[in-house]
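Page 37, continued from 36.
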């Protein structure tokens, strides 16, 4: 891409961008919601504190599983513009994740 060409997508790609943003927000909310619930339940039960979660460094098979999950999430978000067009922008606006 030439430095003078500042566009990533052209105007015909608006639907694809909307699908990508929707996929990103959906993935993000699902993870934030589940993490908040998990932290609350663990903290309430005295099992682990939020700061313990932040300090934890995954290793071994669990680290590999997280890497695979990250690849899936990124693939879902980045691949959204290329997925079959199942919804219009108007339908995406009304969709509740």
């Amino acid at each position: 891409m030439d430095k003078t060409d500042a566009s990533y997508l052209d105007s015909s790609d608006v639907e694809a961008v909307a699908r990508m943003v929707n996929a990103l927000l959906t993935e993000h909310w699902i993870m934030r919601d589940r993490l908040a619930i998990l932290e609350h339940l663990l903290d309430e039960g005295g099992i682990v504190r939020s700061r313990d979660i932040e300090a934890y460094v995954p290793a071994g098979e669990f680290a590999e599983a997280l890497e695979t999950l990250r690849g899936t999430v990124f693939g879902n978000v980045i691949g959204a513009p290329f997925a079959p067009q199942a919804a219009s922008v108007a339908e995406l606006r009304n969709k509740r994740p």
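The first helix runs from residue 14 to 44. Flag for discussion at group meeting. The CA atoms of residues 19 and 30 lie 16 Å apart.
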